[in-house]
Amino acid sequence: MLASTSGRIMLRTATSLGGKTALRALSARAAGGFVASASSNVSAKPTVYPMSKAWFNQTQYKSTVAKPEITSERDEYNVSKTLVGPTACAEAGIDKLGITGPTTIYKNLTYQELYDHEVANNEGWVASAEYGDTFTVDTGKFTGRSPKDKWVVLNEGSESAANIDWNNINQATTPEVFKELYDKAVAHFNTRETAYVFDCFVGASPKSKHKIRFIHEMAWPQHFVTNMFIRPASEEELKDFEPDFTVINACSQVDEDWERHNLHSDVAVVFNIEEKKAVILGTWYGGENKKGIFSLMNY
């Protein structure tokens, strides 16, 4: 794990944190330069993603470690596609959400490709770690989730309205607020030339297994969810993939109208169970992607 002290990044070994697992939260084998997917129909260089000043004015760091001996499952994972052209969003299935602007979609990238994109996009820093080159990212002012900024849409007369225990943890917001935030996230992606899409599964049991789609601006959050969720083992599993829930993560955007929306701050993590969609604004913390879906599984 990495932490910052007086502007310096300091590395602690995994053994001091209870074993190798602590440094394996995100992992990829390091290699120089961008490597196009073997299954991509077009080779494309990732767009450089400049990190904002707001991102740098924060203090907690997470790591993604390169460990060459982890070879079997990770190295064999490859259903990667790079979709290029005016139909890229349609091919990725995100045009149905209103996202039609990007002309390059990086979909289900391999671990190696994710690492290469992280480096090429300047999304963080590479540190030398005990277990290999480690890619580090600034998660912003949030070193964990921001519970006060998490909301669930109260759709009057719906199943979730009747079954959720609405309180200061399961905070309610309105469909109108969700629509404004959703439209903001979609509009942001429509200004971009690129986007990252990860189609995956949650729940090991066939009875409770669900299809999830994540849409991100950058490679490293995709790296995070690629680790946290069940990866498709083959392209066949992605044939006619229709997600049961979609998360649109526009973390670089904030809700300037949060007071009018009666929210806690300009950060918003909002789930609409009936629409099977969620939007994330204003927080770089990767765990928001994971915990939201796990909450849905508990529901």
Helical content class: 10-25%
Rg (CA only): 19 Å
Give the averaged pLDDT, no decimals.
Answer: 80
Listing every helix as H and every strand as E from the N terminus to the C terminus, the arrangement reads: EEHEHEHEHEEEHEHEEHEEEH
Oligomer: single chain
Question: What spatial order of strands do you see in the largest sheet?
Answer: 4-5-10-11-12-14-13-8-9
Spans of 5+ residues with little confidence (pLDDT < 50)?
A: 1-67
Task: Give me the secondary-structure category.
Answer: alpha/beta
Number of helices in the DSSP assignment: 8
- Taking the alpha carbons of the first and last residues, their distance comes to 32 Å
Largest sheet: 9 strands, mixed
Strand content: 15-25%
